[in-house]
Every structure is written in structure tokens, then in C-alpha cells.
Amino acid sequence: MPPSLPSATSVSRVAASTLPSLARNVTTSAGTAVTPNKPPPSKDHHIHSYSADAFPLGFSVSSTHAGIKKKAGVLDLGILISTAKTSCSAAACMTRNVFQAAPVTVTSELLLNSNGKARGFIINSGCANAVTGKKGLEDAWSMSNKTTSLLSPSSNSSNSSNENQGTLVMSTGVIGQNLPISKILENIPKLVKNLDNSPKSWLELSKAFMTTDTFPKLRCKSFRLGDREIKFVGIDKGAGMIAPSMGPPQPPHATLLGVIATDAAVNPKDLQNALNYAVDRSFNNITVDGDMSTNDTILCLANGAATSISSENPMEELSEKTNPKEFGIFKEQLREFAEELAQLVVRDGEGATKFVTIRVKGAPTYEIANAVAKSVANSSLFKTAMYGEDANWGRILCAVGYTPLSPNPISPTSVSVSFLPPSSSSNTTPLRLLTNGEPESDIDEERASEILKEEDLEIEIDLGDGKEESKVWTCDFSHEYVTINGSVSAAFFSIFIKT
Length: 499
Description:
- By secondary structure, the protein is of the alpha+beta class.
- The chain folds into two domains: 44-151 and 162-348, CATH 3.60.70.12; 355-477, Ubiquitin-like (UB roll) (Roll).
- Helix content is 31%, strand content 22%.
- The chain has 13 helices and 19 strands.
- A seven-stranded mixed sheet has the order 12-19-14-18-15-16-17, with helices on both faces.
- Helix 3 (133-150) links the parallel strand 6 and strand 7 (167-174).
- Helix 2 packs across helix 3, helix 3 (133-150) runs parallel beside helix 4 and helix 8 packs across helix 10.
- The radius of gyration is 24 Å and the shape is globular.
- The protein starts with 7 loop residues before the first helix and ends with a helix.
- Heterodimer of an alpha and a beta chain.
- Residues 27-47, 421-445 are annotated as: Disordered.
- The active site is at 255 (nucleophile).
- One of its GO terms (biological process) is ornithine biosynthetic process.
């Protein structure tokens, strides 16, 4: 049974009687209130540039236009290859959608057969190679095998497991269309020939990921681990069809894609465990529209090329068993970095004008807090209220109330709801809307309106039943989102697919 909260109808009545709508509406000649069509804010400030020394050692990248996208010169094919002397550990979290795309299946097989080792990856945008049957699988294998065959032995280790290490595959774009595989295969030799590690090449690779994205998503990070400087580079893409639920590779049976490459040395099994932990608390906690893609994939590559201040010896491989303290630091740094990358996807949500954090605290378990936060974040009524800048907390309670949590029902008399102003605000005191199930009697409507004008919003929900908490990141639903997705197939065919 669902938790026992008031019904959607009764909650809405309470909200209507205690808190007037704060949306800034206009009225038509017929007297109908409508929200003005606000254009999404510019996302240019989310594009970062980096110096050459910001990127992890031992990786090279390359991108090109292969003719998958119709517009000449638009980057749609790229590769990342480990050039380190040591073998590269690899881990992946991939969609749990039963209609897994061909590249997801191929990448799973490659990781399982190599015991978590890989040369790198190849990615194309403009065509997802999803729901494409046997031909799709053949094409994904061709992309992987062609790339691997052209790599020099110097970019691999000399151990006996070399022959099982391949190039992982990712694809994104329209579903149900075959890749122009001949064009892709023709361009792979050029990609391999032009491999380098310049900041320009890294930025171009991030552009090769893009479909409906409005900006390339590239981030770097470094931290000290003992006497070594460990570096991360991350690229991801996504704007629509975003509600990931990803897990580790399984035996074979518009999209979010991402990669995190690091020059740390990490045992493959422990790298997978660290990525599972990071993804569960980052990419699996974002939602744009509640739709899980067929292609969602996050890769993590660790090549062990990090240099030491005091020694020229290769970095000792991190594992939870042999060096738990250092591994714990690495795992938390990976989680923080994954959170930053995941939030970029939400900020670029199709038509989004708001970036919304749902924080649920006071829960008996993390799982309950997370389920409640996702329930609110996926509510179309809540998301449209955020677009309309309407402080209708009844929609929040409604979504809290239908979260399937049996046998751990929520107590309505323990729930509190607040709006949290951004840290940049002159007044950062939370605006309490509901306290222990009772509506606040004197809500400052003017202040609520000011908070809702902000691009970044945070909703805090206290269940009053424990100490666990979870954060989920979402965006609003706008007129623009409906426009984009009402004709997304036509848009893809006219913009991306070569005819």
C-alpha cells in the first residue's frame, strides 16, 4: 500500500485555501490565466576552458565530421585512447532499459571478456544505433574492432591479456535508424592518426558528444593522493530523455553518455565498485523528463600514469582491500566529480529555465529519502509550477504522498517543506511553507516570489523520521520543452541524419 498522505485533491484544496498562487501570470481576453513563454537562459557561462596541465596523463583524443550529422563540419565521431605503458582499467554503468542499444551490449561484452580492461572508446553522435537488430550489433562491433586494429602496441600493456582488450563503444542520437557505417569506418584511420592531448582536442571531443545539447560539457579536476597528483577529466552529454537508472555491465541479453578518465591506478573490480557508488549518487539522481534512455552509459578509465614527486616507480594499484584509506579518498573524489558532471546535464535540460535541487532529509534510510526526492523531481505538476514560478507546495506534498514506500509509510504530521534561497541571496534564511504537517499561517508571498525568480532553486523536505538524506537534481517543464519534443524525430532527421 502507498504511504498514507492526503489525496492529491485534498492536498490541493488545502494549498489553495492557505497559499494563493504566486505565479506571475497574464490574462487573455477570455479571462484565462497563462504563463508567459520565457526563453531558456544562456548557458555559455557553463563552458570552461583549461590549460594543458589540467588533463590526466597518458590519454589522447581525436574528433572529426564523418557525415552522420547533415551539417558539414559538425563533429560527430570521436575517440579517446590510453597511451600509458600500463594496462588501462575500465568500468561502466549502463542503462537498465530492456531495449539496450547495440553499443551498450558490445561494451558490456568487451568489459566482461577482458576482466575490466580496455584500450579506450569510440563515440558517435547523430544516430543512437538503438533498436537496430543484428545489423546494429554488427556495426557496433565494426566500430570497436576497426579502432583497436589501428592502435599501436605502445598504447597497450605487454601482458598476456592484451588480446582481450578492445575499444568500448558509445552512440547517441535518433533511435531506430542504422548507422552510416561505411562513412564511420572510412574516418577511423584519420581519428587514430590525429590523436593528441591538447586542450583544443579535448574540447572538440566534448562537442562530438552533443545532440540537442546547447553547450559542450567538459570538466577537469585534480587532487593529492599521497605524493601523487591525481587528475580527472570528464565529458558528458544529455538534455532530453533523461532519467537514468544505470548499473554495472551484465551478461549480454537522446540519451545520457559520459566518460571520466583518470591517471590513477585502480584495480578494475574496485574501479567498478567506485563508479557504481558515484553514479548512484550523481547520474542516477538526475531527471529532466522521467524517461530512461536505451543508450545511457557512463564509462570510467584509469590508466595509472600519474607521476610521483619522490619516485619514478609506477603508481601502486588502488584497491579497497589493500589500501582502504587511499581508495576511500579516490571514491569520494570520483563521486564529487560525477555530481558536477551530472548537474551539467540538468542545467542543459531541453527548454529548462530553472535548475532545481530536491533535498529530502529526516528519512529512516537513504533509499526512502531518494525515492521521495525522485517522486517530486519527476512530477510534471511540480515542474510546471517551477516554470510558472508558482509556490504551490500542495504539488510537492502530493508527490511525496504517492511515493511507493510500503511497508515504511510516511507520517503526514511529521513532514515539513521549505524553500531554500541560493547562497548568493542577501537573505539565506529558509522560507518555511509547512511545519510538521501544518501550513504556515503567515507566509511572506513577496519573498517567495523573489526566491522563485532565481535560476537555481532548492526545495527541502524533512520527513521527520530519521537522519538519512538524499539530493536529486531536476529542471522545470517549459513551453520550449514541449516544442522540442513535439517534433524531435523531424528535427533529428533534418539536422543530424545524412540523406
